[in-house]
Amino acid sequence: MGEGTQIARAARKQAIRRKAQRRHSHFYERFSHWSFCNHNDAEPIRWHRERWMLAGTALLITALSGFIIPAWASAMRPDPVPTAHAMLPLALPKALPETAVRAPTVEDWHIVQVQPGQTLSDIFQSQGLSLTDLQRVMDEAGDAKALHNIRPGQEFDFLLGTDGSLRGIRFDKDEASRAIVRFDGDKPTVTAQTREVERREHVSHGIIDSSLFAAGSKAGMSNAMVLKLAELFKYDIDFVQDLREGDSFTVIYDDVYRDGAYLHEGEIVAAEFVNQGERYTAYRFKKDDGSYGWFSEDGRPIQKSFLRIPVDFTRISSQFSAARMHPILGRMRAHQGVDYAAPTGTPIHAAGDGVVKYKGWMNGYGNFVILQHNSSISTAYGHMSKFANVKLGQRVSQGSVIGFVGMTGLATGPHLHYEFRVNNVQRDPQKVTLPKPEPLPGAQMAKFKSQVVQPQLARLKALDANIKLARVGGTSRNDD
Questions:
Q1: Where are the beta strands (DSSP E) in 12-165?
Q2: Domain extent at residue 120
Q3: Taking the CB of residue 336, how many other CB atoms lie within 10 A of it?
Q4: What angle is formed at CA 100 by the lines to CA 98 and CA 102, rounded to 5 degrees?
Q5: CATH number (domain holding residue 418)
C-alpha cells in the first residue's frame, strides 16, 4: 500500500513535468543548455554570452554596494559639534624707538703706554696730534697731576676721528678714578669714572741664611717688597754689615688690584725684624692730618731724626779712628769720620733735616758740605764729584740729594767721607747714639695702640706660634 502510493506520486510528478514541457516547449528548447543538473547525457557547461552578462551584472552590483553603502552611512552620521576656543587678550611689547634698536657703537680707543724718557708732547705727536691739541686737553683737565708729572708705564687712551682729529682722551687721575675728556660734542666735556680698588693682604716669614733678598724670595716676596722692608728698618739695621745667619722677619703687606686686575704692590702694614737677638717693629698708621707713617710699638716714628748711613755704598774703606796712616800723606793722623766707597756719581743724601751751613772747597776734603741740624748737631760730607742743586742757607729735608760721590781733594778712590759732629766735635757715625724722635701725641697714641698695634701684634704672634709649631712637628717627623 505504501509502496503503491509512492509509485503513484512519482507518476503524477512525471505527468506534470511533461505537461509543463509541452506547454513551454519553446522556452526549454531555447534555454535547455542553462541547466546545472548533473546528467550523464548532458553536454558540458560552456561560457556563452548570457553567462558573461550574468557574471558582469553581479560584479557591478558588488562594486556599487562598496561605494554606496559607506556614502550612505556618512550621510546618515550627525554633524560634529564644533570645538569651543577661548580668546585671551595678550599685551604686546611696546615698540622700541629706532635709536634703541640699533646696535651699540664700539669706540676704538688707542691705548698708549708711556716709555722711559717720553714726554706728553712726544706721545701726542706719535698719535698725529699737534701741540694745540695738547694745550686744549691741558686747559680742560685743569691741574690734573697725571698730565703734569707723567711716569713710565702710565697709560693714555686716545679716541681719534676718521680724519685723525682728537675726539677724546682718558687717563688715570689717581688710583681710584679716571678722567675722560671729550671733544666730539657741541663743547668739550670732562667726566670722572670711579674704579674699584681692592687691597689684598699677604703674610710672609723668612729666615736669613745667605742674604735678605734670598730669604725674601723664598718667603714669596718680590724684590721691590724686600726693598721696602729694608727701607723701613734701615735706621736701626745696617743690612750690609749687621745681618747674621738666623736673623728672621715677619711681614704683613698688601697688593693693589683695580677692577679685579693686579695693579701694583701695596705697602707694608706691619713688620717685625729680629737682628742679632734685637727685635724691631713697624706699624703703618694714618695720622690725624690724613698722612700715613710707620711707627714702632712705643708710638715713635720709624724714620729717625738721622740716617745712620747717607749713601748706598759698596764697602767701608776706612773706619773712624783716633790715629791711622794717611794713604797719601804717609803719616799717622786721626780719621774723624767714616769713608764709604761707592761708584762716582752715586747720590749723597742729607742725614737729617737741616740748613746748608757750608758749601764749597775744603782743603783735603775737596767739594765739601756741612749741614746744621739743630743747635748742637751737624753733619759733614766730603770728596764730592759735584754738588746737587742746593744753595748756602737753604733748608733741606732728610733724604734729599745734596751731592754726588767723587774723589776730589786727598783721595785715592771715589768715596764719601762722612762726619757726625756734636758741638763741633766729631763722633763715630756708626756708634753715636742718635736722638729719638718724638712719639705720637696722647689722643693719637691711644688710637694707634688700640686700632693698630693690638690687632696686628696678635696676628704676628699667632703666626710666630704656628711657625714654631711647624718647626717642632718637622723636627719630630725627621727624628722618626
A1: 109-113, 155-160
A2: 109-194
A3: 17
A4: 75
A5: 2.70.70.10
Asked if 293 and 285 count as a contact pair (C-beta separation under 8 A), the reply is yes
Contact 325, 318 (CB under 8 A): no
C-alpha distance from residue 477 to each of 206, 207, 471, 473, 480 (Å): 22, 21, 10, 6, 5
Domain membership flag for residue 228: yes
Q: For residue 46, is it within any domain?
A: no
Cα gap 149→173, rounded to integer Å:
11
Residue entry with cell 733678598:
213
- The reply to whether 249 and 229 lie within a common domain is yes
How many other C-beta atoms lie within 10 A of the C-beta of residue 274? 17
**pLDDT tens-digit series, residues 241-299:** 889 999 999 999 999 998 888 888 899 999 999 999 999 999 999 988 888 999 999 99
Strand partners, 111: 157
Answer yes or no: are the C-beta atoms of 225 and 216 closer than 8 Å.
yes
Reading the block at residue 406, the C-alpha cell is 767723587
pLDDT of residue 477: 44
3-class DSSP state of 135: helix
Range 93-109 burial, b when 16+ CB lie within 10 A, else e: eeeeeeeeeeeeeeeee
pLDDT at 359 over 80: yes
Total tally of structural domains belonging to the chain: 3
Q: How far from the centroid of its chain's Cα atoms is residue 75's Cα?
A: 82
Q: Buried (b) or exposed (e) across 185-203, using 16+ Cβ within 10 A? A: eeeeeeeeeeeeeeeeeeb
Inside any domain, residue 2: no
Predicted TM-score (pTM) of the model is: 0.57
**CA 379 from chain center: how many Å?**
47
Residue 135 counted as domain residue: yes
DSSP for 320-331 reads -EEEEE-TTT-S
The answer to whether residues 184 and 204 belong to one domain is no
Question: Domain ends where: 408, 427, 446?
Answer: 427
The CATH number that applies at residue 114 is 3.10.450.350
